Amino acid sequence: MTVFWLSLRSFRTQILAYGIGLGAWAAAVCFIFTTLQDTLSSIDYPQAILDAFGAGSTGLGDPRGYFSTEFFSLAPLVVGAFVVIASTGCLAGEESRGTMEMLASLPLSRLHLFVWKPLSVLVATILVLALSSAGWALALPFVEVGRDVTVWMLIGATMAQLPFLALILAVGVLLGALAPTRATAGAWTAGFLVVAYLLAAIGAISDSVSALKYASPYYYADLTGILIDGIKPWHQVLLDSITVGVVLVGGVAFSGREFGAERWQFGALLGRRDVRQVALPVPEAARVLSVEARGGDGGRMLAMLGLGLLLLAGGGGAVYGYRYLATAPRVLVVDGRVDAPSAVAYAPANGVISILTASEGDDVQQGAPVGWVESSTDDATYPIVAPISGRVTRVEVRVGQLALAGTPLLLISDLGSLRVSLDIDEADLRDISVGQPVDVTVTALGAGLSTRIASISGVPREPAPTRASQTAKYEARCTLPNPDPRLRVGMRLKGRITIPRR
Amino acid sequence: MPTTDALPAIRSVGLAKEYAGGVRALLDFNLEVPRGEVFGLLGQNGAGKTTLIRILLDMIRPTAGQAAVMGLDTQRRGVEARRHIGYLPSSLRFPPGMTSTDLFAFVAGVRSVHPDAAYLDSLVRRLDLNPGRRIDTLSRGNQQKVALIAALMTKPDLLILDEPTSGLDPLMQEVVDEIVREVAADGRTVFFSSHILPEVEALCHEVAVLRAGALVGVFDLAEQRRLAPRLVTVTFAAPAEPDAFGALEGVRVVEQAGARVVFEVTGNLDALVKRLGAFSVVDVEAHEPSLEDFFFALYGATREAPDQARAAAPTGAPR
Questions:
Q1: pLDDT tens for residues B253-265?
Q2: Are the beta carbons of A494 and A336 closer than 8 angstroms?
Q3: Record: fold of A335-339+416-499
Q4: Which of chain A's residues have a Cβ under 8 Å away from the Cβ of B13?
């Protein structure tokens, strides 16, 4: 383990610099969102550009498209640069710096170095990602980004870079075991990273070359538009399998590598088979070699290789968990209020309000008169009829006032059948259907209750949106079979609707 | 553990190394280094000294043949073999940001031994090292001390030193020589490569001479010293006739300046001393025999460049 810690320790400055840098970038991307949102949604970007950066299906005004483009389409290149430097540095770099001389002279097996040094790079990469995740956690709560993007989604997407970065790490280690120097290995690994990225981007832009993207591991990382499209598990499995394969080839190459030879060592891939053993006479052989051969070393090396692979896979598994978060059912949180079926009693004729038999708070029956209007045209007196049974919740007029026929006079609400009214954004409308369960928390009472969507309004709530950045809100109603007696009309509440991922 | 006590500290059989491009660094190299000796490896730059050491440490693989350390094959049982080896590299590079104390703890951790704290302290004190300072801020000489202590601290059975005293001041060189002798007195083996003849002469029991990847021979230094011609400078009271000594066996007049005559004597001095009794002698000065000529002869026609030779052998007169 000491090799691991020594190596991890040597990365501490880079971990802090890359982690804090990325975290600050993440925070900055959060903070400028509200400022940029209107501008971004009004600019007509070419569709190909939006596609290439992962905002093709939503545009940049949508937070999912925004974060995918502004952070996740570029961050893998930045962290990738760290991984290129660290992965080629951890073994080939030791050699080029001359410190391998010391390590190799110690009783450490090649496999020991090959497992623990790259593992320290993997852990360093996870730490960088964790630090940049802190940027999201610190900044997002202060920014209005809408309900589609949560801190956990952003952290999940950040960690989801790991399998792609692990592949870059594996390629860096393999090339470090084959290339003459660290500089050569670094150049080729960086080339691999950039080509992978470009192939995927070009493939996404144009349909005529879209087949190109299938040749790029970056495509299978699903990082372009990750917040919109999520992740395909078989892509992940493919990527991890390639990584494990590259690591195994790298291990073979490293076990056969000649330190300090400064030339391409493809022969190392053949292991030690090219060594011509001298056929010694038996007594000679007994003197040169030890008395007995022991199998313990091979067993321990195998166990360590297994442990290393397990840890690599565990890294992937952890990401898998995060990926699950990103693909897990989405919980839509919407604003709403307590509502009751209400109806207005109108003035039946032009005239003076002569009598009001009901005042605010009175319960009335449907069809019963709640007052009278003395007509100014035909000397008759007309009753003001309660349109529904319920409680008078508002009285707009006083006795003696003049009213024209059709003027709203009283509001009667059926408090016996309270219901919940939710504001659904037009973008979410396609995910909502009648009968979906809703968990409601009434802010004032702190109490939670469960119900289902009973109806969805066909027309938007007023005011209808006038600008591109505004969205129309549609009312979804839910019934409350056994309302809490403390509930009042107009109380604010939050509704949580669970939506299966598309 | 299998009993490997009877096996030599280092043994190579038919060892050969051919680098890419057909460069032959070692050719059919057979060597046996007995335990408990200070064994020198002498050769010019490029003679194959470093190649041999790197094969012993399994950093590179031989093209043919085998090598074993303490009876452990360097390839198949390299980790066990290296457990017995303390190595001082010729090029000093350390992980950045480490203090000597960190490095010693790391080496002890990797070797999974509890270092003998008293021994470590005595090494640090004798070599006059400040272990709390970062190694990368130390001078080359001090870095050399750090690497030397790291190689010595776990008391390995075989100490491989590549140019051990380069960069050290003469006082420290003497301390290092002393430590090396102690290691040998302790029954452990020291294998060191050098192209500095006086250093090899001063320390080694046996010396293997390499030339162009081949072993020229292994020489017992005490024996060679006995056989080597030595110079005797005699100052007579009056200028002498050189002919008087020409007939003596093993004696040759090298130089004559008036009353001062320099003789080169091969074998013992008996004949010369008896003949001198017939003359009036003011002063006799016998020089320690130098093996320089002997070894330079072994190197063959390919002499080092004059400036290198001077640097390598500061006490010897350039030819």
A1: 888 888 888 888 8
A2: yes
A3: Elongation Factor Tu (Ef-tu); domain 3 (2.40.30)
A4: 278, 280, 284, 288
